[in-house]
Every structure is written in C-alpha cells, then in structure tokens.
Amino acid sequence: MVGSIGFFRPAAVAVLKRRSCFILHLTLLLPAVRASGQLTGSPLVCQKTCLCASTIISCSKKNLTNVPNALPSYAAVLDLSFNFITKLQAEWTGIRLDQLQSLLLSNNNLTFLSTEAFVNVRKLRYLDLSFNSLRLLDEYIFEPLENLEVLLLYKNHISQIDRSAFSGLIELQRLYLSHNQITRIPVELLKGRDRLESLRLLDVSSNRIKALPLDELQALPAWIKNGLYFHNNPLTCSCELYELMAHWELRELSPSTDFRSNHTCVTSGQPKEKMAILDLTRQYLNCSEVKSFKKEGYLEQSLVLDCDTRQKNMVKRWVLPGNLTVSQNETTLIRNESSLRIGPLKVEDSGVYTCYATSDSFNETLYVTVVVFNTTMSKGLENLKTAYTTLVACLISLVMILIYLFFTPCRCACCPGQNMEKNDAKDSLHSSTVSLSQAHEERWQERVGGGGFLYRHAAFLEPKEQLEQNGRLNPISEEDEEWQGANRGRTRSDVSSVCSNSPMVI
C-alpha cells in the first residue's frame, strides 16, 4: 500500500503541474480579453445595453466606457450622451453606417478625437460633441463629413483650432463654438477662399476674444452678420466697435436685438470696467452717434446701392425718390439681383431709395439716403487744394511775425557795435541829423569849388522838445526860415524833399 502510494506520487505531481500552468495561462489571458473588450466595446444588446426603437439606438446614461460594437447598419440616430467615453478611436463602429444621420456624444468627458474618427459615418448631418473636455481641433478632422449641417462644440476647453479643421464641410449651416477658450473669430470661415458657402450661423460667444476684425465684419453681407454671435467676450471698448454695433442695431440684426444687454466691452483705463457697447456715446468715449444709412457723391460720379437683406435669396425691388421705378429714371440701372447703380449723378438724384425684399416667410424694407453735392469731384479737390494753400500761407505769415517780434536787431547799449546810451534817444536822433547835414555841407562845398553855386548852407538841428512834424522828422529850424528870407532860390520844400529821400535811424 505504501509502495503503491510511493509509486503514484510522481504522476500526481505531474498532473498538478499541468493544471497549475493551465490556470496561470487563464489568469494571464483574462486581462487581455478584458482590454480587448474595452477597445472594441461589448456587443450591442437592445434588450439590456441600449434602447432600440426602429432606426433609433439610444444608449444614453448606461455608464458606457466605449461605443458598443455590432451596431446595426440601418441605424439613423445613435445617442451615446451622458456616458464615460473619453476617446473616439478610428473605426470605432467597425462597419460603415451609411444610414446614420445623427450622432450624440455630449457629456462624455471626451478628450481625444482620432483624425479618422468619422470615416465610417460620412452621411452624418447632425453631430453633438458639446459638454466635453476637447482642447484642440486637428487639421482636416471633420473633412469626411461632407453632408454635415449642424456641429455642436460648445462647452468644451477648445483653445486651438487648425485653419483646416472645418475644411470639407460644404453643407455646414450652423457651427456652435461658444463657452470655450477661443481668442479669435475664425473669420476665414465667412470670407475668402476657405469660406463655408452654406454657413448661416457662427456662435463664438462667451470666449476670450479681446478684439474683432471690425473692417472685415462690417464688409460681410447682412445675411451672414445676422447669424454671427460674439457677445459675452472681453472686447476692448472703442468708437469703431460702437459704430459696428450701432449699424447692426439699426438693421435689427439678430445678434444685436436678441442679446442687446450681453454686448459689453472692457474699458482700457484703470480700474477696468465693463459697460454696454451701445452706451459709449453717452459715457467714457463720447463716440459720435450713428443715426441712419447715408451715401454721398459728387456730380458726374456713380454710386452703387446694395439691398443688403438679413436673409439670402430674396426677391428684391427698388423704388426711387418720388415713387419712381427704375425704368422711369435714365440714371439708374440694376447691376445684379440686389444692387442699384446710379450715375452719372445729378443734383436731382438726391433722396431716399427704398428696396423691398420678399420671400415665402420673410419680408424686409431697406432705406438708403443719397446726398449729391452740387459740384464735381475735381472741383472739390481744387477747393481742397486752395484751402490747404491758404492755411499754409497763414502759418508762414504767423511764423514770420513771430520771427520779427522775437529776433529783431538789438538796439540796447549792451549790444556789440552800439556806443550810445540806451535811454538817450534825443542824442541819437541829433547825431543822425548832424551827420546828414554834414553830408549836405560837403556836397555844397564841392559844388562851390566847381563853380556850381555861389553860396553854401549847413543846417544844424538844435536839441528841442518837438522833433517831429506830421509824424516825420523835420530838420529845418527857425534859422532856416531866416536863411530862406535872404535866399529865395531854395525853399523849405526842396530841403524837405532831399531829407525825406535820405535814410533815417529812429
């Protein structure tokens, strides 16, 4: 018995070793199977996992960490919201879902989207990725979705958007990017080569945008501006920003009328304050108030009036001042379906032009005031040149006067070359007069020596209280009168004329 037990002991040990190896292998395989199940997801069971109603698959609030596999190809709506799916891998469906039109992945704490995540769902028209933790949108990530019409990305942490992220979305009509960390408006989606032709609504409200491309936004058609929402951003206050919003307010565009109190800006001073943009005319900047739409022109010019409606593809009709039609006015011409060309302009073309726009569900009336100046553009430029020249001449004259007042020759005793006392005005005048009389005496002597005159005369001006007569210096004294009595050949007027032609220093 003992021997038999000793004989079978090696065999039993071998069996136990084989069983332990098998158990070890099973233990190692289970995590792999579990991991594989997490990557691909468990099979869809409509009775347990999700709720299936015809073409609608609802797996909302099922604590899923991955998308269920073996989804039916006929599914049109797939609701995976309010789960714990953090990554959307490439080929997460396993098969093409050509009938799927709506995919809901909101409230999943998504942090990663594969660049090939939407390859098998190219027919999607509605995609909801809101209330997740996405931080960036890679290039061409939505390119396969050529039929997508609505894309919801609000309430994420998006701060980086590649310029090509939305390329290929030729049918996209509404894009919601609010409540993120975006610092600029993707204006390339609204204009230029990368513009999304079908886009009607772009919501970038409640982000971190501090400045807007004002000129580019102002140039957009009204039907695009009517769907551009940018309220609740820390915009910097400026009169240009006020002018933009004032025009939108006059046109009754939806972003302005629906969120009037939410359009605020931040002052640049210290402390920084938040204030309504439309209040900048009354507070802080005192901007000029915008009241109406007006176009100005000169004679012989041409103007183009746009019937810029809030909706696209409307039937438009123009009425001219005096309730005239376009055919009744020779200076007007319909350039295209919405523009009216006026020219060459005449004074009588001034007035209010009205555009009536209609559609199946919406009517709109636009008024444009035209003012034609009674002058040509070239004449206006000539007037401007004349005014400019006059202004320059006035400035030059003012400078010359200032130079004359502050840089005239110095007459004080302290100046170089001056040997006279500052307050001895009479001596200075007397010395000037004496030098003048001496010069005359020398000339008389020369003439007597040459036989010209038989007499000579030297006039000396004695210091007196009155040295002026009728505002002019008179070097003729009482002695001159006596001399004139004896010599009638030379009168006082002759002497005065001689002296008046001589320079005098005052």
In terms of quaternary structure, the protein is: single chain
Backbone structural class: alpha/beta
Strand sequence of the main sheet, in spatial order? 1-2-3-5-7-9-11-12-13
Give the strand tally: 24
Q: Whole-Å distance between the termini? A: 161 Å
In percent, how much strand structure appears in the residues? 15-25%
Largest sheet: 9 strands, mixed
> Helicity level, as a percent range?
25-40%
Spans of at least 5 consecutive residues whose pLDDT stays below 50 are: 1-13, 20-39, 420-437, 447-506
Give the overall shape.
elongated
- The number of helical segments is 9
Radius of gyration (CA) equals 49 Å
Mean pLDDT, to the nearest integer, reads 77
Describe the structure.
- There is one protein chain.
- By secondary structure, the chain is an alpha/beta fold.
- The protein is built from nine helices and 24 strands.
- It has helices at residues 2-40, 214-218, 222-225, 239-250, 254-258, 377-406, 425-449, 478-486, 492-500; strands at 51-53, 56-58, 77-79, 87-88, 102-104, 112-113, 126-128, 136-137, 150-152, 160-161, 174-176, 201-203, 228-229, 264-266, 274-276, 294-299, 303-306, 315-319, 332-334, 339-342, 351-358, 363-376, 468-469, 472-473.
- It has a nine-stranded mixed sheet with strand order 1-2-3-5-7-9-11-12-13, with no helix packed on it. Strands 16-22-21-18 form a four-stranded mixed sheet. A three-stranded antiparallel sheet has the order 17-20-19, with no helix packed on it.
- A hairpin with a 4-residue loop joins strand 19 (332-334) and strand 20.
- Residues 1-13, 20-39, 420-437 and 447-506 have low confidence and may be disordered.
